[in-house]
Amino acid sequence: MNILELHQRFRRYCAIEQGLSPRTLRAMESAVRTFVRRTGAIEMSDVTLDLVQGFFYEGREKHQWGFWCFSNYHKYLKKFFGWCVSQGHMAENPLLAIGLPARPQKLPRRLSFEEAQRILYSAFNITWQYEFERTRNHAIIAMLLYTGLRAQELLNLEVTDLDLRSGSLLVRRGKGAKDRYVPLHFKLRYVLKRYLGDRQRLRKESPFLFTGVRSGKPLGYKDLRRVCRRVSKETHVSFTPHQLRHTFASVSIDQGMGLTQVKEILGHSNIASTMIYVRLSTRSLRDGLNKIDLF
């Protein structure tokens, strides 16, 4: 059976029966195409443990894969070959015999409280080409800093997902295709109210919350990065959208918010993912140290 043809059937299964996102499906397709191109395997009968091991060893040695790159190929191929076994196209899954390298303990980068304040202030006071860009881009930076949303979650937002009266935001189909409610800080509600007023004044009827200046099309990730780069250039504070998520989480813990609360807001499935922000929070450690009598 041809590998790529079989993978097409597998992706259809993942889309319909498992509800995986188009982005995940594209990543899975890219992984298997890379595997086929680099190994020369065409038919499922070509896939052996030695061939698969060689693919991963070459990835580490020749292509300098880091942990996450190795892990993604491992995850996507393991899922595909596991399905092939269940469908009778393979006798066993070769990925079960290939382990993952040690996961690096590198901490995610966060901004300081002062840096976060600076970019939030500058996002509104920069001279943008259009007035609409000012309120929109300020709302984007504020949304990331006050909610810790993932970039794609922010870009997928629709106007009806906002409830300024109750102070909540519905995040639809976040990571793992899960919905969740996120509370809106009172300062963010003020920013969003001003932005929505600007949308209404310009008669923007797009259902998407963040759109282009002239069109009703939703912003893409490249547009979001462009906004962040402009603010970075003006403030000399380098950051990415995801670093604002890290900043929200670590500052929230600094300010005394409980781990469980931060976990629910971020949409983590496991509190172990949230625990890393305790390591980013120096304030709680410092306060705890100052309470004890040393020497």
Structural class: mainly alpha
CATH topology of the largest domain: hpI Integrase, Chain A
Give me the CATH superfamily of the largest domain. Answer: Intergrase catalytic core
User: Main sheet, how many strands, which sense, barrel?
Assistant: 3 strands, antiparallel
Shape: globular
Query: Strands of the biggest beta sheet: in what spatial order?
Result: 1-2-3
State the separation between the terminal residues, measured CA to CA: 72 Å
Count of helical stretches: 13
- CATH architecture annotation of the largest domain: Orthogonal Bundle
What's the CATH class of the largest domain, please? Mainly Alpha
SSE series: HHHHHHHEEEHHHHHH
Q: What is the total number of structural domains? A: 2
Q: Regions with pLDDT < 50 over 5+ consecutive residues?
A: none
Strand content: under 5%
- Mean of residue pLDDT values: 90
Could you characterize what this model shows?
It is a single chain. The protein has helices at 3-17, 22-39, 49-61, 67-86, 113-125, 131-147, 151-155, 186-201, 221-235, 241-254, 259-266, 271-280, 282-290, and strands at residues 162-163, 168-171, 180-183. By secondary structure, the protein is mainly α. It has 2 domains: 3-97, DNA polymerase, domain 1 (Orthogonal Bundle); 119-289, Intergrase catalytic core (hpI Integrase, Chain A, Orthogonal Bundle). Strands 1-2-3 form a 3-stranded antiparallel sheet. A hairpin with an 8-residue loop joins strand 2 (168-171) and strand 3. It is globular and about 60 Å long. The termini are far apart.
